[in-house]
Every structure is written in structure tokens, then in C-alpha cells.
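Human: I'm a chemist; would you kindly supply sequence and C-alpha cells for a protein?

Assistant:
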Amino acid sequence: MFPKDEKKKAGGREFTPLWVYFAIKFTNAKIAEVAHIQKVYGDLDVSNIRMPFNKHMKKEFQAFDARQRYTCIQWYLETEIDFEHYSNIGIIHDHYPLHRLKAHKVMKKSVNKYWKKVMKTLVWGNWYKYCEPIHLLKKYYGERFAFYFLFFSTYQAWLFWPSFLGLILFCYQINLYTQDSMTLHDAIGNPWIGVYGIFLCLWAHLFVLSWKSKQEKLIHEWDMDCLQDVLSNDERKGKYKWMWEYNSEVN
């Protein structure tokens, strides 16, 4: 594929090459074959145990997630096609995986169905019961994005009480300044500020404990060795770039 504004010559005449797109689709059978050759680790259907995929036992494995599919597809394409050579000679202008639109619709539907319930139970309640959107994010984008969204959702849910009490305290300060004819300094520095500060210290401590509990549960559920290995990598660069662009149906 050539850029639209690039001019080429043929037979003494200039012409603008057209864009030509190719979409390569991998079947589940082909991905299973490559996964068997490469010994890609998969999840057993009956537990969280991970082991190298075996095509003769494929019924015992869960469906491949985005990372596992991309590992197989990338290895196969790089084995069959010399992308660097064809890019240098101008045959291929660029190549990249595409988003999976059906997966986006499934995630959006899950978010619309469960997100309010998740937000209500992240402070107190069985939050894991409504955690389907987080699991879908993990399967599509990877653990880093899933932890990112869960952390900020937890933080947002926990901010309700300090925001609510802070608003009441703010209104009380305005009332002191306008109705009781106090100076601005005295209205702001009323004794309830200290009480609110103590509350924030307790709130922050409880929030950290709550997040650590949720984090450890997902690390165990997703059979991860540790969280640092995920957080130290950037999905937008190098071998992690696929998490931004992957499409498991059209590659």
C-alpha cells in the first residue's frame, strides 16, 4: 500500500497508486494449531490452572483471550511474511491488527447492565458478583487496563462520603460567614475542619485496605504471579501495542 499523495512513474507517466487493503482472518482451528506448536499457556476450563495448550485436549481449555490469540497470530505471520523486507521495498506501507467490534458491543452491554451495581457495592457489598465488565476488559485489553478501570471506579465510589460531608461543611462555612457575620478566616477555620480532617485520615486508610483486598482477589483469580510485572510494562509500545488495536476476528 502506498500513501495517496505519493507519485509513481510508469511508461513515462506519473500516477498516484491506490490504497489496497488486505484483511487476513484466522480461524479458531488455525489458532489452536499454532498454540499447540508454540505451547501457548491457556486456562483449563475446570479451574484457574494454566498449562501449555494441547490441541488434543482443546475441549478442556477455555476460549483463548485476546493476548493468547495475538501471540499465535503474530508468530504465524512473522514466520510466513517478511514484513520488514516488503515495507522497505514499498509493497507494504503498514500493517496492524484491528479492533473487534463485536467485543466492544459485548463490553458496552455489560457495562450498561452492571456498572451501577458495581459502583454501589465497591464500598460495601459483594462487588465481585457484578464484576463481569472488568473481566471482559481484562480479556480484551489485558490486566493493566482492567486494574486501571477497577481502581478508578473504586476510588470514585469511595469519594462519595468525603464529597458529601465536604459539601455539608462548605455550606456550613458559608452560613457562618453570611448569617453569623463571622470573618472569612474564622468561618473557614471553624472546629469542624479538624473533625473532617480526622475523618479523611480514617477514610484514606480504609480505602487503601479495601483496594488491596480487591487487588489481591483479582491477582488470585487471574492466576498472576504479581502485579508489578503488569504495571511495569506499557501496552502502547513494543510487544504490548496490540492491546490498543487488537481484533481477534479480522487480522
